[in-house]
What we know:
Six copies of one chain form a homohexamer. Chain A is an alpha+beta fold. Chain A has helices at residues 2-8, 92-106, 111-114, 132-149, 194-199, 228-255, and strands at 23-27, 35-41, 44-53, 68-75, 118-127, 176-184, 187-190, 202-209, 214-220. In chain A, strand 8 and strand 9 form a beta hairpin. In chain A, helix 2 crosses helix 4 (132-149) and helix 4 (132-149) runs parallel beside helix 6 (228-255). The interface between A and B is medium-sized, with 34 and 32 residues. Strand 9 (214-220) of chain B pairs antiparallel with strand 9 of chain C.
Amino acid sequence: MRNDQRQDWRRRDRRQADELRPVVVRPGFLKTAPGSVLISAGETMVLCTASLAGELPRWMPKESTKGWVTAEYRMLPGSTSPRSPRSDRPDGRATEIQRLIGRSLRAVVDLEKLGPRTATVDCDVLQADGGTRTLSITGAYIALAIAFRTLFPRSESRSESCPESGLESWPFTDSVAATSVGIVNGTPLLDLCYEEDIDAEVDMNLVLTGSGRFIEIQGTGEESTFSETELHSMLALGRKGISELTRLQNSILESH
Amino acid sequence: MRNDQRQDWRRRDRRQADELRPVVVRPGFLKTAPGSVLISAGETMVLCTASLAGELPRWMPKESTKGWVTAEYRMLPGSTSPRSPRSDRPDGRATEIQRLIGRSLRAVVDLEKLGPRTATVDCDVLQADGGTRTLSITGAYIALAIAFRTLFPRSESRSESCPESGLESWPFTDSVAATSVGIVNGTPLLDLCYEEDIDAEVDMNLVLTGSGRFIEIQGTGEESTFSETELHSMLALGRKGISELTRLQNSILESH
Amino acid sequence: MRNDQRQDWRRRDRRQADELRPVVVRPGFLKTAPGSVLISAGETMVLCTASLAGELPRWMPKESTKGWVTAEYRMLPGSTSPRSPRSDRPDGRATEIQRLIGRSLRAVVDLEKLGPRTATVDCDVLQADGGTRTLSITGAYIALAIAFRTLFPRSESRSESCPESGLESWPFTDSVAATSVGIVNGTPLLDLCYEEDIDAEVDMNLVLTGSGRFIEIQGTGEESTFSETELHSMLALGRKGISELTRLQNSILESH
Amino acid sequence: MRNDQRQDWRRRDRRQADELRPVVVRPGFLKTAPGSVLISAGETMVLCTASLAGELPRWMPKESTKGWVTAEYRMLPGSTSPRSPRSDRPDGRATEIQRLIGRSLRAVVDLEKLGPRTATVDCDVLQADGGTRTLSITGAYIALAIAFRTLFPRSESRSESCPESGLESWPFTDSVAATSVGIVNGTPLLDLCYEEDIDAEVDMNLVLTGSGRFIEIQGTGEESTFSETELHSMLALGRKGISELTRLQNSILESH
Amino acid sequence: MRNDQRQDWRRRDRRQADELRPVVVRPGFLKTAPGSVLISAGETMVLCTASLAGELPRWMPKESTKGWVTAEYRMLPGSTSPRSPRSDRPDGRATEIQRLIGRSLRAVVDLEKLGPRTATVDCDVLQADGGTRTLSITGAYIALAIAFRTLFPRSESRSESCPESGLESWPFTDSVAATSVGIVNGTPLLDLCYEEDIDAEVDMNLVLTGSGRFIEIQGTGEESTFSETELHSMLALGRKGISELTRLQNSILESH
Amino acid sequence: MRNDQRQDWRRRDRRQADELRPVVVRPGFLKTAPGSVLISAGETMVLCTASLAGELPRWMPKESTKGWVTAEYRMLPGSTSPRSPRSDRPDGRATEIQRLIGRSLRAVVDLEKLGPRTATVDCDVLQADGGTRTLSITGAYIALAIAFRTLFPRSESRSESCPESGLESWPFTDSVAATSVGIVNGTPLLDLCYEEDIDAEVDMNLVLTGSGRFIEIQGTGEESTFSETELHSMLALGRKGISELTRLQNSILESH
């Protein structure tokens, strides 16, 4: 019977179970920040801006030769329907997400090569239709790579905000991209939109490097559980999606 | 001598003293909010989204037949160079500005015709190069007008968020637009960019209706003062700029 | 018909349209602060205290030779009827007002002559009946002038809080006073009390120097608009009131 | 030797050890609040305003027939030299003090006779020279008694804020006054000023009813201790001072 | 070479790589809460208390027939060496953890059977030596099970806080336990203590039901990455540890 | 008649009016903090942990040769029935109590002998049944004495957190203990439990040194008053209880 259900069932936007939503990327969207990108996947749209500063966070030793990469994530009030109230401080969900984005970027940055600088990537969700945290990671990598170029010796357009010294070698050790997978009505699906996410029994976010190693795996059965077999199906779907996103990131950074 | 200075002096972007920066408007930028616009004037870019809700603010009597229009204003961290720290709650400046935007919109809305609804216009500055508050007002009017259409009986695309009842008559009594004027090195200038604003002896924001009546006049000499003659020069420049913005607003609303 | 209305109409306290409320000033009300004044205009009563400190605000460069003047404004809970709750932090209105008071004072202070000091003027409204912000400005000037005297070489009562060095020359370049004007039932009126303010179609605050130059003009039509002719009527009324306040300030400072 | 010290020693203002500072009371200082008093003892000056509201605090049952009396205490920034930063929310010290004032008033109010009303007494310290909390209690009683009169059937000036119903019987069961005592250089002293308070080994606040019963006794040896004999000396001094304050309160309330 | 390292290397407390720390459980530690447990694993000690209330969270519909289970997590200041400053509101880390604990419990509670009640489990860490979040989950299940018994019809000691109605059937659908695994110096280890956690290249928290299904998998390579093979090694270690914890939970609940 | 009532009346736990609840002390409960104690009196249970740090509070001069002792007090949510919500910041009551604990400890510590160190004692109430603040003081002394031993030259287990230098002489000048007394139904009682505290007309907390001198006396008649005779009865009861607690403290510190 469950089988029959599956035959009838289709994704709202007629995607295949293992198909990503179309991704559109506008690198260099802003002139104020050294790196920025307006990225959308289906109806989800995130503005990622990467800023660079010569100071280190207070908790780091002043004489540190290493730098730091951090992220902030917030949804604009109009990004949802109905409007979500602006919150006085990052709520629990935003805090979790911005910590995830920061960890994901730091896993592929050699902080020693970055030198005593702080890179801050702001991920502001302009329109939300599921997958905002994973799209933020995918976009943040592009924005940060563009920002790092302004510090690079071969660059002609060095950042005015850090004019005194550039980078001696490229601080990224790999690229990073992310996607969501889930189990909806018993079927594993790639890249859930909001309606699918609401219906999902299991929700998993995967963050992988361009070379296919894991940075983060977060699988949750909200009021539900999942088997090891289902875990493996989801991992396979996620790998497929992330390799496509990695190719897209590379092609954009080559042509920008 | 002062005269000589003026002859040599030119605006950074070669504009005339009474010339607005080029304005680009993308109405309907988001699908989540009933009304939205991405508006830019030179390098200043603001995302205005207008949301509608069936509830009234708590301070209004529950049985009110009138509605309310309010606004929120915030600058995204990456909108300035260097990055500005994110302030989740509005600081003094943001509070002043969002109160100004709200007052300006309410001056041209018949709250009785709006009925017991709250319209909230969020003005999020994506990129800041001077004049963010006046551009927010100019854009907010467009976003709110698009949102009101979804409530209007003739509309085919009624808002899902307020499906139960539409508007019986158009709630706007006039249009509203705003611009800044100032005195820089003794010369009155229209529509100051950030660098001009920093140098200005006097800074004035003007909010006028489409029919030319005043809604708000805010003139400030920060560590400076100005004469009644200078006041009149600034009023004339502002009138000219606002009438051009009014024409632009009308043409966009006609074609959207 | 409108004419007839005006003939019948009288101000609650039988003032003429261009008449200020009686102003009572008690300079040196407190002994703790170097400058203080208890000032009242009709039923509005404000305690202005000016304090001086040797430190500069954090945002100023440490080696600055210039000083800073700032203000805080708050209404005591019992200043209104019914009592207003004490607010956890300055609300939007208080923030706007204290920024206005600070700007108005700085427009007539030569910060270079003040030297690396911070002057803070606290304006605490003990009783509110309209015009609290403009009365605060008028009183703040007196309190600050009294405080500056304690720093002045000719003074015999130098401030203990800054004993190390006095002022070499008087830091005020001019005096400053303020009043409100408005249009009530179509009639321009000077110095609105609370009931008039509630009824006003247009509310305007004017801050002028003793020599008659503008520091700030803030005119607002809350749910209303005004013409250029009405603007000029209000400017004329305001000028008259402020020149009277200026004379009062001078006579108090001469005799204190 | 200790004896010799005592012979030489005199209080800064030449008071006897058991002498109160001169108290000046201006009842009805404000028109906005139903009860108010500006009270000073030496250089300490407090504005006490008593407000009445028809609502009860949220934590009380809605159908309660009893009322509530509460207090707020704050020091204005200019009340100390040098200026103290404004703390909008009560710090630890202010919290302790306003809880003490509220308890002291409730000990002499029959909340059943007050009926379902909230009385709030705001004690704002305009100038601080020691003893602000005890002077606040002494003044708060006067302000609250004046406010209660506006509710009393025999009163001609019933409060507009509670017009619907007056009091059937007088809610005070006794009067309340307070003073401080302390041990300075081994000598028990009545009504410490700030300099004495700083030097005190022991600091005690006493709140007594007009009929001489204890409401509150708070004795503290900050980095010091005291014997039972010293405790008794302090109690005797306090009783003397409070009986004088009680007489003053009565005479003011009779003549006001 | 890597092999050689592993031979020399030993865990600080001489545990095997797949060995849990000794767990000590004191069920019913407090009398105030219906369910409580003091649980320790090695030097990590957590006090879990489960409270029951008849109200639902505000965001749930009032007429809901389902209940809610939530959790709060906090570390006491003295739980670490040196002392950690008290954070009264949950920081980012505490927020993440208490959301995880709540989700984990809800995955094995049938909220319909719980009925319109809120169960709150407070996990206060008295002493921290790694694994506080997973030990909190393991202890929270025991505390909540003890609390549910007080609601159960067969129970003789029904909760006084919910006397009106008991449970008709047992709301747990399964048990839940959790542990951490990680990769330290290239070796996968079970149940990391603090020093091992600091050194770990990869840190993974696993939450499983008693029947072996996944509730949550959170694997993170902080400034590092991991392969799919390493993922599988960690999953196997975690399964082993959790099955031991499940047996311990069952034996305690049988004998309590 | 009152006499008859007293004859019939008995304390819930059959204690005599002058009898303390049984006190159980577990010194060294935690390994993370240099000093700790789990102390209970009847059903009231408090965890006191004393931490030592080499820094001084910001408000102390950097070159100070004296140290500081401070305390924090909080009730865990599960310590009451029903559960009390966790508060975002210390509420008024907690603030008062932690200030009292700190003052009480400082009265018996020679801050000069402590040297430039900060000792922080955290008092976390695990279970509350009246007398939490006085039990916190009694326990805090034990915890702090244990912590000071780690700094003492003769100690073999010097604190790792302050390894550089020990104490030259013992910083305590006396011991400190505290208890509550009250008047319930007209009868003075020692060491009130929660139910007695609720019924008490007068509530008094006494903090005394081991040698019998007063540190703090706080007597309050909430909605009630008390006579000097009643004050003396309460003082006598309190002295008796505190001398017993002092003996207990000494015996524990001798044997630990």
